[in-house]
Amino acid sequence: MKIKVAFICVHNSCRSQMAEALGKLYCGDIFESYSAGTEVSPKINQDAVKIIKELYNIDMNKTQKSKLLNDIPKVDIVIKMGCNVVCPYLPAKHTEDWGLEDPTGKSYKEFIKTAKLIQEKVLDLKKRVLSNDI
Q1: Alpha-helical runs (H) found in the chain
Q2: 0.90 cut: is pTM over it?
Q3: How does pLDDT run across 13-25, given as a tens digit for each residue?
Q4: Whole-angstrom Cα distance, residue 66 to residue 126?
Q5: FRET pair for 3, CA 20 to 30 Å: which of 35, 105, 112, 129?
């Protein structure tokens, strides 16, 4: 059975959604990726949707939606995106905070930078899971 990873932040509309999409793309063979928050947004951040579509050819509007913590199954690993306020709490065997800045309201370049950073961190997480470091 595959382990389950949750990418969480408060609104579940931007960074955690990008992480879920990239987790599914790069790590679907190793773990199941979910994203969630303590609040839901009516729709995923459209700048994030545009960047993920452009860079990775994934349409998050079709494959994902904003979810609450209790909308996802019990997970093994929790990745906090970096909340600057109180991050949501979810029980798990392993928890870490990626401390990513929210690009919402910032430039196109910032969104690309955030997506690439998430890609890097997702691939590193995959490596650590495979080598049993987590």
Answers
A1: 15-27, 46-56, 60-63, 108-130
A2: yes
A3: 999 999 999 999 9
A4: 24
A5: 112
